[in-house]
Amino acid sequence: MPIRDFEGSTFVAFLDISGFKELMRIEEKAWFALDRLYQSGYDILKNSRSVEGLFVSDSGILFVRDGDNLLNRFDALLKVIQQINRDMLEAGYLLTTSIAFGEFKYQERIEFPGIGKSPIYGNAYVQAYMDNSSGSPKIEPGFCRLVVQNLPRDFSIEQNDHNLPSTLQFLRKRNGDKWHKYFYWNVNNPNSINDFEKEYTNSYQLKFEGMLKALRNHL
After folding, report:
1. Average pLDDT over residues 10-20
2. Do residues 39 and 137 lie in contact, with contact meaning Cβ atoms separated by under 8 Å?
3. CA distance 114 to 24
4. Residue 29 near residue 78, CB atoms below 8 Å
């Protein structure tokens, strides 16, 4: 189903497959990853009333079209992101996802056989894309984060607000990063976020120790 033209202020998410360049060394693995991403995106988006998107190569662009208020629109986007990430994780793939708010325009152009043009404009898309590809600090595999710059002043996602939609209870700041809030889509209980952070950090340390061991074994 084609995406209808859109122009306005909304949340935009840019996601891509972590380590896809390595997967491309083996063509079959790359195709499996792409097929899983496209199928997952299609199945999940077709059941969403307000979130739409398109997938190109190893990346996806999602945006929220409708909603009665910004919190509910943001909640709808997070639910779709969570579903896609969990489905990809089940297949053994990790994504990185960046979300930004701002002006966004999608325009469907006239298409000819074999040729398609779907221009995408807006600072929200650019900001999400840039954060995902070269943001600071660098986004880590499996993580999803919201760029807090340019959020509307009346958009409150403080954890002490008990009226927040359930998904927003899984948003947290990370130490040393004042530019983002992270969405812990993989955690079932907000109280487990700190434990997950420790495990994730320890996994990086173990990887580093494994590199040291491999180097020393061949001295």
Report:
1. 93
2. no
3. 24
4. no
